[in-house]
Write a structure and sequence with these properties.
This protein is mainly alpha-helical and 179 residues long. The chain contains five helices and four strands, in the order ββββααααα. Belongs to the methylthioribose kinase family.
Length: 179
């Protein structure tokens, strides 16, 4: 799928350490892995890294800070990230639906089928993103390139619990995980 799906120019290594955010701007660094590929890859790898951060929090909890507020913030961020991306993507699609006719005939997307095409595309993109995010979670736990969120948990048994929860996407008794 990866090589056959050149949907966009993607970063190829998006994670929380490659995105610098201020109130006024967002900068993405380390573009050396950039390539044309499936859009769901960057979306999914970023979501996967946030999910890893979520599951690592229990390993950093102590009597003074149970990390519940931070976990809640991560879940909110995951949900807002996808919802904002979805909204902006569809807005841009609608804004440019007229096109210039070089790629497709404008009449195709000026019918009542546009919203159906958008819904299907975004649903497929979401599913692709979840698949790539899941692969990222597995690679970062089982593979050789780990994440500091988990590696910095000093207690090996706590770290193993967090890794197991991440691999199973469990420990969400309230059903708060937005994906």
């Amino acid at each position: 799928m990866f090589i056959e799906t050149a949907q966009a120019l993607i970063h190829g290594d998006v994670h929380t350490g490659s995105i610098m955010v201020t109130p006024d701007s967002t900068q993405v660094i380390d573009p050396e892995f950039g390539l044309y590929g499936p859009m769901g890859f960057d979306i999914g790898t970023f979501l996967g890294n946030l999910i890893l951060a979520y599951y690592s929090r229990n390993g950093h909890a102590d009597q003074g800070n149970d990390r519940k507020a931070y976990k809640k913030w991560i879940l909110k961020t995951i949900e807002e990230y996808w919802n904002l991306f979805h909204k902006k993507f569809v807005e841009l699609w609608n804004k440019h639906k007229e096109g210039n006719g070089e790629v497709y005939l404008p009449d195709i997307y000026n019918s009542n089928l546009l919203s159906l095409a958008q819904k299907r595309y975004m649903t497929n993109l979401f599913h692709d993103s979840l698949g790539f995010g899941s692969a990222k979670i597995i690679r970062r736990i089982v593979g050789i390139s780990h994440v500091k969120d988990l590696e910095s948990i000093k207690d090996a048994s706590k770290r193993a619990e967090c890794e197991r929860a991440g691999l199973n996407c469990e420990d969400d008794p309230e059903g708060k995980m937005p994906i």
